[in-house]
C-alpha cells in the first residue's frame, strides 16, 4: 500500500488545477483551458485507477465496506462520470461542481486514513490538510486583491475620463476594457480556489468531529464572501452589468473578504492568527 503523503498531495494539487481550468472554460468558453482541464483530470483518473489496481492486486486488497476505501472509490467514480459527460456533452458547470464534491471526498479519504504518513516528519496528517487549505485560501485572497486593484484602477480612470481630466498617470494605465477584463480574470482564478479551500475546511471540521465549528463566525462569513463573488460573476455573465457597477461590486466583495479576515481574529474559535 502506498503510504507517502506526497503522492496524495500531488493528486490533490493536480485535481485542484484541473478544476481551475474547467471553471475558466465555464465562465468564458476557452478550448485551451478545457483541454488543459481535461488532460489534468484524466491524469488524476489514471493515478486513482493505478492506486485501485495496486490495492486489488499488489496490496492488501480493498475492503468492500471500508468507509475510507468507499470515499476513494466514490471520488474515482465521480471523476470517471465527469470525464464521460465532458466527452459527449458541453456541461462545464456540471463537471466543475461534481468534481468539487469528488475533490472533497478524496481529501476526506486521504486525511482520515491512518496509513497515510505526512510528508514532513514533524507534522501530523491534519497539519498537512491545514497547510493545503491555507495555501488555497491564501492564493484566492491574493487573486481577489489583484481584482480589487484593477477595479480601483477602473474607477479612477472612469472618473478622469468622465470629468475630462487628462494626466500623465492616465497614459500609464491600461484601458477601461483591459482593467475590467483583468479584474474579471482575477476573480475567475480566485473563486474556484476559495471553493476548494472551503471544501477542505469542511473536511477538517468533519475530521475534528466538532459540528459546532460549522457555525463558527469565520466559516459562516466565508460563505458570504463566496456568494459576493458568485454574484459578481452573475452580474457580469448573466445580467451584463456595466463595468462601472461591476468595479464597485468587486470592491464591496473585497471589503467583505477583508472584514471576514480581520474579524475572524476576534470572534472565531479556531481561525485566530495572533
Automatic annotation (TrEMBL):
Domain of life: Bacteria
Cross-referenced InterPro entries: Cyt_c_assembly, YpjD/HemX
Name of this protein: Cytochrome c biogenesis protein CcsA
Keyword Transmembrane helix: yes
PANTHER family xrefs: INNER MEMBRANE PROTEIN YPJD (PTHR38034:SF1)
Membrane-spanning segments: 6-23, 35-56, 68-86, 93-111, 131-157, 182-207, 219-234, 246-267
Keywords noted in UniProt: Membrane, Transmembrane, Transmembrane helix
Origin species: Paenibacillus gyeongsangnamensis
Domain Cytochrome c assembly protein: 68-270
